[in-house]
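Example 5.3 — D-alanyl-D-alanine carboxypeptidase/D-alanyl-D-alanine-endopeptidase
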Amino acid sequence: MVKFRKYISGITVLASGLFLAQSTVSTVLFTPAYDSQKVALNLPSPVAAIEKTILSPKELIDVNLNTMITDPVLKNASWGFVVYDPKTKKIISSYNENMPLVPASTTKLLTTETALNLLGENYRWMTQLEYSGQVDENGVLNGNLYIVGSGDPSLGTNKAGALSYREIISDFVSGLSNEGIKKVNGDIIIQTALFKGNISRLPENVVWLENNNYYLPVGTTREISPANEKLIVKKNNLSTDKKFFYVSPYANQMVYAEKYEGDGALTTKLPDAPAYLANTFRTTLVKSGIAVTGKVTPKMTDATPESRKLVSAYKSPTLGDIIYYTNQHSDNSLAEALLRTVGFFKKGDQTSESGRVVVKDHLKDIAFDAEGLNYIDGSGLSRSNTVTPIAQAKYLTSLMNEKYYGTYLTSLPIGGQSGTLKRMFNITGNGQVFAKTGTLNKVKTLAGYIKTNSGRTLVFSLLVNNYAGSVDMVKKRMEKIIEPTLEL
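Solution (predicted structure tokens):
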């Protein structure tokens, strides 16, 4: 906890008296123009110059934090900060480090690391084309084609280097050609039970409207393409102040939103990637001269499976690639898919409930400080998620000894350079802050690692809830809080 020192205050008062014309009153009332005020001369503050001469880097951090406590953007907010030394295992400086706060998308730090720990960075999802029966001398397959999926969350999306549907289908068609199949006298059967029909309700208290994005289990409407993820979207005639409603295909609940920002025309089809792949595959076969007499049909269970031969197998990008994309872009749909994947891996089903149990068990196994922790979803969209800054910092410290730490660190956005941090730390801290961001309405968070000017690696967490003003205003305060840590 920061302790404001009297002698620091005395220095500041003295300097303020000497240079009154250039001093700033920190308790100025908040106005929309607070951040946009311009000064004729951009001179360095004499108070800051004196403090930097007399005070140590740690003392400068403490003074800076005390300034932030009275800042108009933060003074009525709930927020906490900690900078932690992973070598000494001690707090360097902190404020409200034990306060449970909404972490927003820094929740993905827990989800993605659990997947890396349990599955390994080289884990891949497989989507296979198989056939049953026999191929006669005329190239007629008297049997069925099977598309066997494993819940690949990137299937057909081009995310993380994943192939498009067209590319996967091209490989499947080539595989049939290599087998000499010219006609299919049977059905195309979809065999996958992953991620479908097992969710009883949506995550608790999910925030649906944030910065003109509308979050759903399959992603935001901005990301949705009818070619990839079909979503029920209809005009709403029941309410005058809402224009559309969204119905999750995986849970029978309705969600209102002001407008649709997805790609392409609106559709009422369900987001079923394997079904889309299978139907497009059938259409492509027919167009290329390979007739299919049967239909596309799902078969989630099979008590008496047919003997089948593998024709072609599509491998997803590695888990490391998926996690890189997830953390760089803060992709909600991939994070939720990872949650269900670890649930399936350990519990044998694909529910988010099982995924949460697996993540919590993993955190318990690695001695995560669970005081104040509430883990509700994999992406951080729920306002019921809570965590303390010190728990995040100690957790990130513990990962530095893991064999996959390099992959994990690389997945984090870099200040001023990549991902969701590309527009922060553009000058001070550029290339030195490696962190996951989080954003909800009146929630802005940041947690990760700092490479200091002296070459040290420090760990930090900064969680801000219920701030005043705009997102850009709180981001500037966050940058100011982090800035002096670079001198440690």
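Remark. The chain has twelve helices and 20 strands.
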